[in-house]
Amino acid sequence: MRRAVELPSPRVHFAPSFRARLGRLLALSASRRERSEGAGRARLAGGGAEFLGYRPYRYGEDLRALDWNLLARLGRPYVRVSAREASERWVVALDASASMGVGRPGKLQLAAEVAVALCALGVRERATVTLHVHGAEPLCVGRRPPSVEAWMRALERLAAGGTQGLGGLAPALARVRGGGRWFFLGDLLDCEPEALLRLSRPGRELFLVRVLAREEMSPAPVGAVRWIDAESGTALAREASTATLGRYERLLAERLARWDAAALRARAVHACWTSDTPFETLALSLCARMG
Amino acid sequence: MAADARPAARVSSALAWLGLDLARPAAAWALLLGPLLLLLVRVLARPPQAVTGTLALWRALPEARAGRAGHARFPPWALLAALALTLGALAWLGPRPRGLRAPRAWTVVVDRSPSLGLPHAGEGQGTRLERALAAAEAWLAGTLETDETLRWVSPGRAPLVLARGARPPAGWLACDGPEPDWSVFDAPGTLWVTDREPPGARRAAGVFASGGPAVPGAIALEGGASVWWEAGRLALRARPVPPAVRVLEPEGASLPEVLARLLGAWCAARGFALVRAAAPDELLEVALAPGPPAPEELRFGRDGWRSSGRAAALGPRAEGSAGEDWLQAVAGDGAPRILVRARPGRIDVGLRECAEPEGDPAAFALSWARLLEGSCRLPADVVPLAERAAAGAERQVAPALPARPPDPRAALGPALDAGLALAAGLAAAAALLLRARA
Q1: pLDDT digits (tens, 9 = 90+) for A188-198
Q2: What residue of A is the nearest CA neighbor of B72?
Q3: d(CA B211, CA A209)
Q4: Which residue from B94, B128, B176, B194 has the fewest beta carbons nearer than 10 Å?
């Protein structure tokens, strides 16, 4: 049965306190980065004439840039970096399908907040960040802080809908060249891991950020429930008993484990969060995992 | 016209096997409210809806079967609310353990006049009395409670108290009595059993009249023959044997000669046989009191004649028995002496000696003739014309229910109602609380 589904949280709204929280996040991530990489922090840069410093080695990078002496001394791989005229590129792919409108707060809300946080983090790192959403032109921002505002306005105009999630966006993303860090923000329910992991390239970090609603992660035992698919409108009545919920959570865990294994093989990062997680927590976790 | 329905009595009798009586059985419909509420909850209950992106996982569950989750269990608040409604209905019904309600007083007044002994030539068989009794007993069976009894009364019979379903013996029901004075028995809980509805206003008693067409037959005696009424005409028909008057004399005693002569002449004039042994169609017994006569000579008389003689004691008349002390004398000690006692069908004579009457002999003869005529029964087949006439249509009118006498244990009934009502209230409060928190 297909019918129009009234989504719980289809829109994005940035609260007045969001910018202040974003500022605190940037400051916190900067201090953590200083502690982890030293005072002479290396600015993100590729190969070039001017030696700037060291930064941790990222999987897939050219081993010729690896500083073997530092490796012998510290036991951790670092590469020599040099300033270059071209900045690093980040790609943020956002799932805005109808299933992202589930949950209170909605999954799209958290994904949008994380997208803005990644945009701000990328701009601070002098990266060029491009936002890709199915059915919309990519939104690219450079180093100017006001660009973050443009992202926020664009995201507030979004509404969860349609059936094309990140799996549907993958073919378009395959034509995107470059990009050191790729972030996939969505529920990852419309595709298999291979659809996204095939976008892995040498020197490219993939971050698969799965956002699920609390009731999708751990449904409450409320007896009989009529579940409605957010995208197709198909309805299915099921008993949400303790035994049934146990089986459901096992199925979900198996699916997540399959994604974890695939991501591990592809040297990608896969993490799952509920939509009621503060965006700072998610963003800082991503920062910690960035090379 | 059928008797009034007694649905309250039918409900009560239907619950008798539970050992319960109901004070207000008309409220039985309220017991349906609880189940109706649960039915409504089942019909209206729909499982809550939730939008999800993981429907594929739900669909993949092993026990997937569409619609199974639709069979929602009843929520606790609904069960409590249904319980509250049921308890309230029970409080309204007013259940009482059997024996808490005092039995009511019921009376059946039986008309034993000769017309009731005539056959009911309508549908069915039996006499008019049997037909009327059957109708009354059928109504009583549906009305009386098992512990209630019936008081049977009829003029000329000692009252009987019998259990429900029991009938007086055939001898008690013999149709040889007078019609009752119905006005004396017009009260709630009283049933009149007769063949035709008595005229006049009736306040509370019920009537079970058999009705019935006219029954031709003998309506009077004429000498040794019967006057026969049929198709509106009268005819004389000889009787196979003449009616008899039996004289009962103890051994060694006999009626005074003057009385014996008069009795013989009266029988001859009426065409009756004077016998001293049992005979068919005995209309009258003239019994000489046993025992020796008292030595005192008494003077006695009535109706213009006087005489003297000795007499044996007749003894006191039984309380409530029919008949009269027809001839008395005052003894020397001032005590009355009963000399002749009469009732329908029997004359007891204590006189052993009776001198020739003084005064006009005709007065003596007339006085005794009236006694003999008045005491003489009619043969069983002779029924007066008025009795043989049609009794009209069958009619059944139920009586007003009698009031239930107060029972000192009756206070338990309101206490039971209050307890049930309190339990209903508590269940309702709990249901509301659960519903508010749901």
Answers
A1: 999 999 999 99
A2: A224
A3: 101
A4: B176
